[in-house]
Design brief:
The chain is built from 18 helices and three strands. It has 399 residues and is mainly alpha-helical. Helix 7 packs antiparallel against helix 8, helix 11 crosses helix 12 and helix 13 runs antiparallel to helix 14. The termini are far apart.
């Protein structure tokens, strides 16, 4: 069916703009009139629209959208009008197209959660299920505010971790580039110079020259090998077993493993707290969490917990068998279950681990910076010393 862009006014005179799917212009006007929306102008929306940059919907777009929709809903604006406003002001073509499709579904009689569920890969099961819970309970504005705060909190933590990792990544990349430049371009110059002198080079210099020759001679195969390993690892990590092995390894890496564990616990507690507080049944909440924690080891523990709860057990008992969850976390969940304040205990736990993550990130940053400087100095300094070592023995090398 064709699309029609319209400008209209609602029953109290507010201006509304949007798009509607209908068999004809007259039918579109009749549909809108039945909703107490009175058309001012209407035109075919099938004309070629200007293409805006950025067709991919990013996580940041969803976070911004959730906060804007929450603000409008809490201000009393109708959901359909809010969707129309957000659709028109979106600068991302992918987001705009998706909101247009959602708006059309809602106009056609679908519930908001049903319209979102058609784009669950973008919004995530947590967002969709919380919107559904909000519609069922009649507390949609409150639930939207809660989910917006949750998404902003998770996004803030992710940005902190990415920011902390940015510096070591850049320094490591710079170190690698400098090292390769010295080995491939500079060392051959010294090799030619020392060949004219004759004599036997010191063992460290010979090893370095041999490694330089190897890289230059087999550089194409070396690059192909690295690329092949990258794609093989990428394919393995897409398998269930590969993800389990990698996630287990991440939790055991010195220093970084502890940070990852704290992030996972914080996310688990925060998500479960928001879901329980929003009135979502505990079994459904646990199913949603499996797709949110981002670690297969914890997913397995949550899956085990779901089966135990379904059989009548508490949440704390099966979680105690997972090495990721400390005794303190298990005990707090147990107390929350016994007192009926599970969401409150989970929220306190989440706040505690958020602070722990902040402290760990700051500590990690302060440790990594001098450590990288030492590594950079040792690597570059070692190469320079190996190449200038023969100069110290030049008298024994010249015939």
């Amino acid at each position: 069916m064709p699309l029609y862009d319209y400008k209209a006014k609602d029953k109290i005179g507010n201006e509304i703009t949007g798009t509607i799917e209908s068999q004809s212009e007259k039918t579109a006007i009749d549909i809108l009139r039945d909703k107490n929306i009175f058309v001012v102008t209407i035109s075919s929306g099938d004309k070629k629209r200007p293409v805006k940059r950025g067709k991919k919907v990013k996580r940041a777009d969803i976070v911004t959208f959730s906060r804007q929709l929450s603000t409008m809903a809490n201000a009393g604006l109708p959901i359909l009008e809010s969707l129309n406003i957000l659709h028109n002001q979106s600068e991302n073509q992918g987001m705009q197209d998706m909101l247009q499709a959602i708006t059309r579904k809602v106009e056609s009689g679908y519930s908001l959660s049903e319209a979102f569920r058609m784009h669950e890969k973008v919004f995530g099961s947590l967002f969709v299920n919380m919107v559904n819970a909000g519609e069922s309970s009649g507390k949609l504005p409150t639930i939207l505010k809660r989910v917006a705060s949750y998404m902003e909190s998770v996004d803030k933590m992710n940005r902190k971790i990415k920011s902390a990792m940015m510096y070591p990544t850049i320094v490591t990349g710079a170190c690698l580039c400098i090292t390769l430049f010295l080995i491939i371009k500079v060392i051959p110059v010294f090799e030619e110079m020392y060949a004219d002198f004759g004599g036997t080079l010191p063992a460290p210099t010979q090893v370095l020259i041999a490694f330089s020759n190897f890289l230059r001679e087999w550089s194409i195969l070396f690059i192909i090998g690295v690329v092949a390993i990258f794609f093989i690892m990428r394919k393995l990590l897409r398998t269930e077993m590969g993800q389990v092995v990698f996630d287990t390894f991440k939790l055991k890496v010195p220093v970084f493993g502890l940070l990852i564990k704290k992030v996972v616990i914080s996310r688990f507690a925060k998500t479960l707290s928001v879901l329980v507080e929003s009135g979502i049944p505990i079994l459904q909440a646990l199913d949603i969490i499996k797709g949110v924690v981002g670690n297969k080891v914890v997913e397995a523990a949550v899956d085990k917990t779901t089966k135990a709860v379904r059989e009548g057990e508490s949440i704390a008992v099966p979680l105690s068998t997972c090495p990721v969850f400390p005794i303190m976390v298990v005990k707090m969940i147990e107390v929350g279950e016994k007192t009926g304040n599970l969401e409150e205990m989970l929220e306190k736990m989440s706040e505690y681990y958020d602070d722990e993550v902040d402290a760990a990130v700051m500590g990690l940053t302060s440790i990594i910076e001098p450590l990288l400087m030492v590594v950079l100095g040792v690597v570059i300094g070692g190469i320079v010393i190996c190449m200038f070592l023969p100069i110290f023995k030049i008298s024994t090398m010249i015939h």
